[in-house]
Each structure stands twice: as structure tokens, then as C-alpha cells.
């Protein structure tokens, strides 16, 4: 059974760096074809894809946020970390991590974690 | 602004059939599979359709997906009150990014 869980809700100040951890079980990020992505959702708004990391450490980023994002994996600890620099109140959102299957869809999602950006 | 275009809202009465459209481009829907997600209030999205028209185990056959050219559709037949939710389409884009639709809020009247 695949499960994913994001780190606890957090409050960050503008200009600070956000670090989010996704801890997963039921699959390995060293298995060929496996990916893990981050998607966020501002309050009352749509889903927005942020980043993706593959089993071979290939990484993809949203073009609009590329300069602020870094995604890394720790295969031994079954964790993926997303960092976002220079946080702004518009980055306030629920952040989800999700298992990407076969490069075609996200079949398992974490429950999401609320990130609030405020001074 | 989302890359995939969905109507912001849709509605139907119990038992009806409703469809939700999703319009993309040749580099997204035109070249790759479409997936659909259901999001109930306060919960994480749930995979509803993958590979344009495949249902994961546990998804009722009332839900169906289709794709033609650069557009896709989600159909819900025999509408139920518990289908009231937000629905999102998504697809990989050949620019090596994922793209999502802006979401459609389905109301069961």
C-alpha cells in the first residue's frame, strides 16, 4: 500500500526559504519509472504543479517557479524534499506530494500541508 | 492562468449525465495522456481517470473519460449527490512539465 505524508503545517515570513518533506512508503524511488511530484493549491484556487523528481534523479520544474525551487530525494529514508526560496504571501497554499505512475498520472496523493506566508 | 481550460462550473440533477470539458494544445493533450482528479472539500485530489479513459480500481463505471485531438472530456452518468466536488484535468506537456486545468466545480441540484 502506497502512502505519502507531507511535513507539518508551517508559517514562514516573506523572503524566507520554505523546506517541505514528503515521507512515503509502499514504493521505492530507486525503481525504474517511478516519480514523485509536488503540487500546490492556494485557498479557493486550482491545482498548480511545481516539481517532479524521477528514480534516476532527473528533475523537472514549473517554468514560472524554476529559479526558486529545488527538489531532492533521499532514497534510503524514502523522502523527497522541496525547497522554495524567497517566499511571498502569494505562495500561501496547501502543498501536496504525489506518486507519479508511468509518467502519465498521479495515482497516490498525500493529505497536503498548509503553508502560510505572513510577517 | 491554467494551461488547460475547463469550465469553472457545471451542474446537474440526480440521475442526469453531465460532461466536463478540458481543452489543451498539441504539446499537451494532443501528444500525451489525460488524467482526471476529483477533489472533495477539504481533501486531497483523487485519481478518477488515467490514460484518457481508464478507471482505477474502485472508481465507479459511472465515470468515463474520452479524448479527441487537443480536447478531453469527463462524463458522469447517474449523477449522485456525493459527486458534488471539484474536478481537474491534467496532462504532461512536451515542454517537460505537468499542466493542470483550472478546475470545474460540479453542483448536484
Please summarize what this structure is.
The complex is a heterodimer of chains A (119) and B (109). Chain A has 119 residues and is mainly β.
**Beta-strand residue percentage of chain A:** over 45%
Q: Give a count of the beta strands of chain A, DSSP E runs of length 2 or more.
A: 11
What is the string of helix and strand elements of chain A? EEEEEEEEEEE
The chain-level mean pLDDT of chain A equals 97
Task: Briefly note the structural class of the backbone of chain A.
Answer: mainly beta
Which word captures the global form of chain B?
A: globular
**Head-to-tail CA distance between termini of chain A:** 40 Å
User: If helices are DSSP runs of H or I spanning 4 or more residues, what is the number of helices of chain B?
Assistant: 0
In total, how many beta strands of chain B?
9
Report the oligomer: heterodimer
**How far is the first residue's CA from the last residue's CA of chain B?**
28 Å
Low-pLDDT sequence parts of chain A: none
Contiguous uncertain segments of 5+ residues of chain B: none
Proportion of helical residues of chain B: under 10%
Structural class of chain B: mainly beta
Name the chain pair whose interface involves the most residues. A-B, 24 and 26 residues
Please give the largest β-sheet of chain B.
6 strands, mixed
